[in-house]
Design brief:
The complex is a heterodimer of chains A (170) and B (236).
Chain A: H1 2-30, E1 38-40, H2 44-57, H3 67-77, H4 81-94, E2 102-109, E3 112-118, H5 124-127, H6 130-137, E4 143-153, E5 159-169
Antiparallel strand pairs in A: 2-3, 2-5, 4-5
Chain B: H1 3-29, E1 37-39, H2 41-77, E2 88-89, H3 99-111, E3 118-124, E4 127-132, E5 134-135, E6 138-139, E7 144-145, E8 148-149, E9 152-156, H4 161-176, H5 181-184, E10 188-192, E11 195-200, E12 205-209, E13 213-217, E14 220-225
Classes of the chains: A alpha+beta (170), B alpha+beta (236).
Chain lengths: 170, 236
């Protein structure tokens, strides 16, 4: 009889434990919306911001302008030829074809785009690469896109917003 | 089963109940506050703050340069006076040239809606010197950023204030000595009735926005009404 009580206690405890675990599992999986979340803050755009700022500070041979001055000068004189050539030359050296094949630079005033230039690199070479294909096989976008933005003053009160979008291989 | 075995399972079940209840309380019931933790958030925020400051410094540097050019253009057209004087010098009145102060006032007006407050402004050796106070302090849940900058910008003014002040004193002397103003100074003049027009050539280029943006040399122009100079001639 004593042995029967012990067995019964054991079985009931086991059932009780199972019920507790099931109950809390259900509670935690449905009610617990606030979770302890750990995220690694992305610092990717920081290097693009530095590149963009250095680009704008770059001196040119035109009237002792910096690129920033040249953007404003080109905007008011509606002539973007020098700016386009210089921008392509600078960014094609910073963002190498086999690492960052995509870069797009644009300038806006009052949300209206007045200038844009982008890389003329082809993605074909990357598509043939092992890394590119493995990433795609696992459903991962092979290029990581980041965006950097800097404002420069114009000759009236409107700010000119310069944006740089880059796509680099992960 | 021995005696220890008798109590193990019920004790284990009760302890599990206590632990899970506490976990429920701590993570669900008590979790009114956000428990999200960002690894590297403080470092990232610090870098972002430095970057924002760098961008502001770059923006201000350019803004000061362009506003100085705009000011030089208007100041030269106004003959160093306030706009309402129509470039006509009249001593001992509101239209007496006070070059440095008038330049600073004009610059401040142009800078007014820029979104930045000038802390200090002065002209020294034909350079405009500006000081700003930039505060990037921020408070976060687990940390604070205290970052304050007081940058100073020095922008060359394409005008010779010493020369202008000397000319002003020379003209006053000429009027007092009742000399002919057209020949009394070395500056280029033209006359129309009682009005003498002065043109002081400036060999420095400034950026000017007309129908397009261009580099131009801007002459400093003003006029004086010989019959209404504002100078009281002292007769001894």
């Amino acid at each position: 009889m004593k042995k029967g009580t012990e067995t019964l206690t054991f079985v009931f405890s086991l059932i009780f434990l199972a019920l507790i675990l099931t109950f809390y599992f259900l509670i935690f999986s449905t009610v617990a919306t606030k979770t302890v979340e750990t995220k690694i803050v992305s610092l990717n755009s920081i290097s693009d911001n530095i590149n963009l700022l250095n680009y704008l500070r770059t001196p040119t041979n035109i009237n002792n302008f910096t690129i920033s001055d040249l953007i404003i000068y080109s905007y008011y004189n509606k002539d973007y030829q020098d700016l386009e050539g210089l921008s392509e030359n600078i960014f094609n050296k910073i963002y190498l074809e086999n690492k960052c094949p995509v870069w797009i630079l644009n300038a806006k005033i009052k949300d209206e785009e007045f200038f844009d230039v982008d890389s003329d690199f082809s993605l074909e070479q990357l598509r043939g690469g092992v890394r590119y294909n493995i990433l795609q096989l696992f459903g991962v976008e092979p290029l990581r896109y980041t965006n950097a933005q800097i404002s420069i003053p114009s000759f009236n009160q409107d700010k000119i917003k310069i944006s740089l979008i880059t796509g680099c291989l992960r | 089963m021995n005696k220890k075995g008798d109590i193990f399972m019920p004790t284990f079940a009760i302890i599990t109940l206590i632990i899970l209840s506490y976990a429920l309380f701590a993570l669900v019931i008590k979790a009114g506050e956000d428990k999200t933790t960002f690894i590297g958030q403080s470092q990232a925020e610090l870098l972002k703050t430095y970057q924002k400051a760098e961008q502001d410094l770059f923006y201000l540097e350019n803004l000061v340069k362009y506003k100085t050019h705009e000011t030089i253009n208007e100041f030269s057209k106004n003959g160093g006076l306030k706009q309402e004087c129509n470039a006509r010098w009249k001593f001992n009145s509101n239209c007496e040239p006070d070059f440095e102060n008038n330049f600073i006032e004009l610059f401040k007006n142009k800078f007014e809606n820029s979104g930045y407050d000038i802390k200090e402004i002065k002209i020294q050796d034909n350079n405009l010197i500006l000081k700003f106070n930039l505060d990037y302090s921020k408070k976060f849940k687990n940390f604070n950023i205290d970052y304050n900058l007081q940058p100073e910008f020095k922008q060359e003014i394409a005008l010779d204030f010493t020369k202008l002040n000397d000319l002003k004193n020379e003209i006053i002397k000429c009027i007092n000595a009742q000399k002919d103003l057209t020949t009394c100074t070395n500056e280029k003049t033209s006359v129309s009735g009682d009005i003498i027009f002065y043109t002081i050539e400036n060999n420095k280029n400034i950026l000017i926005l007309t129908d397009k943006l261009e580099f131009k040399k801007i002459d400093f122009k003003f006029e004086i009404d010989q019959k209404d100079t504002g100078v009281t001639i002292q007769v001894f």
